[in-house]
């Protein structure tokens, strides 16, 4: 699949997907007998497909050749792992959430008015 098709289906580029995989592949290896052996690249693709499309879990599981339980488990597991990784990184940097600047539509006008 070329990069354009990959981006169209998964909503991120192939390069970004490979960066995610390099960062999280070790954490995605599960040692749990309740789960089928699903490779980290496949777990990540199931997760990306699930969050970027409005398809049902059954359609996702059919597309990736796994049970609906495993498709849902991949999405849930990768999401929790990424959230956990983000929160532990933020703790290591000791950056309080209040220091992160978020912008919304109209913020610039509000700040300009308050400055005058």
Automatic annotation (TrEMBL):
It comes from Potamilus streckersoni. This is Transposase Helix-turn-helix domain-containing protein.
């Amino acid at each position: 699949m070329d990069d354009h098709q990959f981006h169209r289906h998964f909503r991120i580029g192939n390069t970004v997907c490979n960066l995610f995989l390099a960062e999280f592949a070790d954490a995605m290896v599960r040692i749990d007998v309740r789960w089928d052996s699903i490779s980290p690249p496949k777990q990540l693709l199931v997760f990306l497909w699930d969050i970027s499309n409005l398809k049902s879990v059954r359609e996702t599981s059919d597309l990736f050749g796994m049970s609906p339980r495993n498709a849902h488990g991949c999405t849930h597991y990768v999401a929790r792992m990424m959230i956990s990784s983000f929160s532990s990184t933020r703790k290591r940097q000791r950056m309080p959430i209040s220091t992160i600047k978020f912008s919304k539509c109209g913020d610039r006008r509000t700040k300009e008015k308050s400055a005058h």
